[in-house]
Amino acid sequence: MVESATPTVRIPTAPGYFTSALRVFDLSIGEMLWSRRTIFMGLVVGAPVVISLIVRAVDALGATIQTNGVRVAGPTIFGILIWVLYLRIIVPVLGVFYGTSLIADEVEDKTITYLFTRPIPRGAVLVGKYIAYLACTIFVVLPSVMIVYLAIVPMRGSLGASFIDLVKDLILLAIGLAVYGALFAFVGARFKRPLLAGLIFIFGWEQAALAFPGYLKKFTVAYYLQALVPHAMPSDGVMSLMQGFFRETPSLAASLAWLLGILLAFLWAAAVTVERKEYVLEQ
Amino acid sequence: MSKKTRYFLAGSAAVLAVGLCTGLFAYYGGGFPSLSASRSGPPELSYVPADASIVAYANVGEIMASELRQRLKQAMPDEKGQREFQEATGIDIERDIQYVVAAVTSAAPSNANGLVVARGNFNPTQLETLAREHGGVVEEYKGKRLVKVSDVRVETPPGGEEVHRVGHQMALAFLEPGLVAIGGEQAIKSSIDAQLTAQSITSNEDMMELVADIDRGNNAWAVGRFDAIANQANLPDQIRRQIPAVKTFAVMSHIDGGVSGTLRAEARDDQSAENLRQVVQGFIALGRMQAGSDPRIAAMVQSLQLSGSGRTVSLSFTVPAEIFDMIPKVRGGGGAGAAVAPAAPRPPQPPSPPQAEK
Question: Which of A26, A65, A159, A170 is the best residue to mutate to test the B interface, defined by the most B CB atoms within 10 Å of its own CB?
Answer without folding.
Answer: A159
